[in-house]
TrEMBL record:
SUPFAM superfamilies: Metallo-hydrolase/oxidoreductase. Residues 192-212 are annotated as: Disordered. It comes from Paenacidovorax caeni. CDD domains: YcbL-like_MBL-fold. Gene3D superfamilies: Ribonuclease Z/Hydroxyacylglutathione hydrolase-like. GO terms for molecular function: hydrolase activity; metal ion binding. Keywords: Hydrolase, Metal-binding, Zinc. Residues 13-193 form the Metallo-beta-lactamase domain. This is Glyoxylase, beta-lactamase superfamily II. The keyword Hydrolase applies. Its cofactor is Zn(2+). Transmembrane segments: none annotated.
Length: 212
């Protein structure tokens, strides 16, 4: 069985998530934006061993701690899709702009594509490319527990911003309606910020995509 634990990090209260296989206690960390000591303390408390970093996209609040964490623990960096290369290249400037600690540069060990899978322990998670907020944004869908880690694509009652460089509003709406909704109304999603919700609830009531 796959389990997860969400840890809000940084002044942006970004939802970093630990996901792990209960058979092996091997874990991946999704979007380690910062507060690495807190993330590592949570992993230790849960008794899990970090084996990989999975990135939804490369904005500073999601990826700012990636380079340092990968170096500390010699972890592979998996994701996002290569459309976010320019965001990775710009992480040092992003850290200065938003008052984050200096972000170490990194190169993903593996870029992800739509339809890929990633594994942790004995568990497999599906990858969908969901551009719009950023061009290389991906989400991690775990159908075995009806959960999806969506980064900044969709929020409870809102959607991701598209006014950043290479953001695209229509592309974001298409990502939500064509790639998230088919995962099923009962699927609970873990957004990059704020509380969890379900795709069904958002499909019915979200003012930006409700009724789609």
């Amino acid at each position: 069985m796959l389990h997860y634990h969400t840890i809000p990090v940084t002044a942006f209260q970004q939802n970093c998530s630990l996901v792990w296989c209960d058979q092996t206690l091997e874990a991946a960390v999704i979007d380690p934006g910062g507060d690495l000591d807190h993330i590592l303390a949570q992993a230790q408390h849960l008794g899990v061993t970090l084996k990989a970093i999975w990135l939804t996209h490369a904005h500073i609040d999601h990826a700012g701690g990636t380079g340092e964490l990968a170096r500390r623990l010699d972890l592979p960096i998996v994701g996002p899709q290569e459309g976010d290369q320019f965001w990775i290249d710009g992480l040092p400037q992003q850290s200065t702009m938003f008052g984050f600690p200096p972000a170490l540069p990194f190169t993903p060990t593996r870029w992800l594509q739509d339809g890929d899978t990633v594994t942790i322990g004995q568990e497999t998670v599906h990858v969908r490319h969901c551009p719009g907020h950023t061009p290389g944004h991906v989400v991690f869908h775990a159908p075995q527990i009806q959960r999806c880690f969506v980064g900044d694509v969709l929020f409870a009652g809102s959607i991701g911003r598209t006014d950043f460089p290479q953001g695209n509003h229509m592309q974001l709406i298409d990502s939500i309606t064509q790639r998230l909704w088919p995962m099923g109304d009962e699927t609970v999603f873990i957004p990059g910020h704020g509380p969890e919700s379900t795709f069904g609830r958002e499909r019915r009531s979200n003012p930006y995509v409700g009724g789609t």
